[in-house]
């Protein structure tokens, strides 16, 4: 039996912390779906299709195995996607107690709705302070985001700004 996991997020943009969690998930599970989802509570920097392209490029450039797939989902509950692809696990990166408090109720509901378990992975400590919203803020003010994001993302955003 194949163990399939889903790593969901808005990934707007993907950070090195996200990439670290995806890489480690790829070593645990037989198939990993990186799922870009729309978060209605956030104002997006990048269109979803562009996020999918940048994530796929970053994953390939990092040498993460081919059993990691990148796609998007906007047609219902996250657990609906999991059921559709046969995934029994969600993988979430946790940076702090704030993340734990936010993610725990969702993990319980996802288990109750579709028997999908949630596994929390801690990012490498060198990335634990970085969030996509912090990267968006730094990028929006013209700062250097290259220490926080994969090269594909830094290059894309610099080209968008005309640097």
UniProtKB/TrEMBL annotation:
Its cofactor is Mg(2+). Residues 7-137 form the Cytidyltransferase-like domain. Its EC number is 2.7.7.3. Its main location: cytoplasm. One of its GO terms (biological process) is coenzyme A biosynthetic process. Pathway: Cofactor biosynthesis; coenzyme A biosynthesis; CoA from (R)-pantothenate: step 4/5. Keywords: ATP-binding, Coenzyme A biosynthesis, Cytoplasm, Magnesium, Nucleotide-binding, Nucleotidyltransferase, Transferase. It catalyses: (R)-4'-phosphopantetheine + ATP + H(+) = 3'-dephospho-CoA + diphosphate. GO terms for molecular function: ATP binding; pantetheine-phosphate adenylyltransferase activity. One of its GO terms (cellular component) is cytoplasm. It is found in: Cytoplasm. The keyword Magnesium applies. Signal peptide: none annotated. The record marks 18 as: Transition state stabilizer. Substrate binds at residues 10, 42, 78, 92. Homohexamer. Belongs to the bacterial CoaD family. Reversibly transfers an adenylyl group from ATP to 4'-phosphopantetheine, yielding dephospho-CoA (dPCoA) and pyrophosphate. This is Phosphopantetheine adenylyltransferase. The gene is coaD.
